[in-house]
C-alpha cells in the first residue's frame, strides 16, 4: 500500500458516499445516470468474485464489500425506491449502455493475460469500467443542469482513476516485475474520458459559477 493507492481508494469511496448522500438525504437522483450505475454494479460483480475464496487482507475485503453493496444499493434506489425513482430522468438517460457490454466481453476474450474464467471476467471488468462513465457524461451534457453533489461525484470518480495512474507509476519504479499493461491502458482511457469534464469543472470553480457542460 502506498500513498497514491490509499488516496485513490479514499477518493473512490468519497465519490460513492457523496452519491449516496444525495440520494438518501435529498431523496433525489436527478442528474444521475442509472445506466452508468448498472454498469458499475456489473464491473464490481465480475471483478470481486474472488471475495469468496481468495482472502488478501481485511482492508481489501472491506473495500470490496463496500463497493459491491453501494453499487447495487444505488441501482435499487433509482429503480425501486418509491420517492427517489420519481426524480429519475428516463427520457434523457437514453445512452444504449448494453451495446458496451458485448465489445468489452469480446475484447476480454481476445486480449487478456491468462485465458481462464476468472481472468477473463477480471479483464472484462477493466474494459467495462473504462467506458462506464459515458452514459453519465452524456446525461450531464443533455440536461446541462448539474447540481453540486452530482458534479462532485463525477469529479471524485475521475480523480480516483487519475490517482491510480500515479499508483501504477510508483509501483512500476519501486516493485520488480510490476507490469500490467491492460490495466494501464484501460485506466488511461478512462481518465482521458474525464478530460472535458475536468476542464469545465475547474472553470466553474474558478469563476464561481454553476457547472455546465456544452451540448
TrEMBL record:
InterPro entries: ER_ret_rcpt (IPR000133)
Transmembrane helix as UniProt keyword: yes
Transmembrane segment boundaries: 55-78, 98-115, 121-140, 152-170, 182-202
Subcellular location: Endoplasmic reticulum membrane
Domain of life: Eukaryota
Main location: endoplasmic reticulum
Mode of membrane association: Multi-pass membrane protein
A single cellular component GO annotation: endoplasmic reticulum
Any GO MF annotation of the entry: ER retention sequence binding
The entry's keywords: Endoplasmic reticulum, ER-Golgi transport, Membrane, Protein transport, Receptor, Transmembrane, Transmembrane helix, Transport
GO terms for biological process, alphabetical: protein retention in ER lumen; protein transport; vesicle-mediated transport
Similarity annotation: Belongs to the ERD2 family.
Protein name per the record: ER lumen protein-retaining receptor
Organism: Prunus persica (Peach)
Amino acid at each position: 500500500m502506498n500513498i497514491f493507492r490509499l488516496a485513490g481508494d479514499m477518493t473512490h469511496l468519497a465519490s460513492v458516499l457523496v452519491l449516496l448522500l444525495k440520494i438518501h438525504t435529498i431523496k433525489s437522483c436527478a442528474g444521475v445516470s442509472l445506466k452508468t450505475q448498472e454498469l458499475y454494479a456489473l464491473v464490481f460483480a465480475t471483478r470481486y468474485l474472488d471475495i469468496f475464496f481468495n482472502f488478501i487482507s481485511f482492508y481489501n475485503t472491506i473495500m470490496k464489500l463496500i463497493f459491491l453493496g453501494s453499487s447495487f444499493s444505488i441501482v435499487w434506489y433509482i429503480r425501486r425506491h418509491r420517492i427517489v425513482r420519481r426524480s429519475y430522468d428516463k427520457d434523457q438517460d437514453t445512452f444504449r449502455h448494453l451495446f458496451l457490454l458485448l465489445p468489452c466481453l469480446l475484447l476480454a476474450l481476445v486480449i487478456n493475460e491468462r485465458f481462464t474464467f476468472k481472468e477473463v471476467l477480471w479483464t472484462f471488468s477493466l474494459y467495462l469500467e473504462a467506458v462506464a462513465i459515458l452514459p453519465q457524461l452524456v446525461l450531464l451534457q443533455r440536461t446541462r443542469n448539474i447540481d453540486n453533489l452530482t458534479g462532485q461525484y463525477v469529479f471524485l470518480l475521475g480523480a480516483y482513476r487519475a490517482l491510480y495512474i500515479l499508483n501504477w507509476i510508483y509501483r512500476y519504479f519501486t516493485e520488480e516485475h510490476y507490469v500490467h499493461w491492460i490495466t494501464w491502458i484501460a485506466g488511461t482511457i478512462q481518465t482521458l474520458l474525464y478530460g472535458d469534464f475536468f476542464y469545465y469543472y475547474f472553470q466553474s470553480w474558478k469563476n464561481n459559477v454553476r457547472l455546465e457542460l456544452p451540448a
